[in-house]
Amino acid sequence: MDQQAKPQVDSSLKRRIDQDLKDALKKRDTLRLNVLRMLKSEIGYKEIEKGSKLSDEEVISVLSSSIKKRKESIEQFQKGGREDLVSREKAEAEVVSRYLPEQLNQEDLRGIIEQAIEQLKPTGPSSLGLIMKEIMPKVKGRADGRMVNQMVSAELQRIADSQNSTKSQEENRIM
Q: pTM for the whole thing?
């Protein structure tokens, strides 16, 4: 009974990657084939680590991690003047990104940030961790964590600046 349940737990995203791997093999698309094999391997390692099949959310986490590694590699290769490797990493990142959910635009992300700020009522930049803890599960796989961090930091700084401005205006009225 337990063995019958395991194939049903297999994520649809993982099945899609398997199917696309077969398709790339038939079409002799070496770039896509190599990337999909690598993704399948990374997913397999995570499943071994976890001791069970991964859900779609967990597969998305593996894919997001893969994209992040590629972005970091692109930055390093650009610094090193290795445009050949930059273009290869970009092409691989493009293949991986096809399996991620649609990325949030800045307006949608800003709305999520504003909602979290209104809900948690932060006092300033020191509340960054609290806000990030609230936001990241909502945007996981759909927004770059570094960009979210920068946007939240800027918004918290704006809040702190407006609070400081209000305090100095009140002090001026008292004097």
A: 0.70
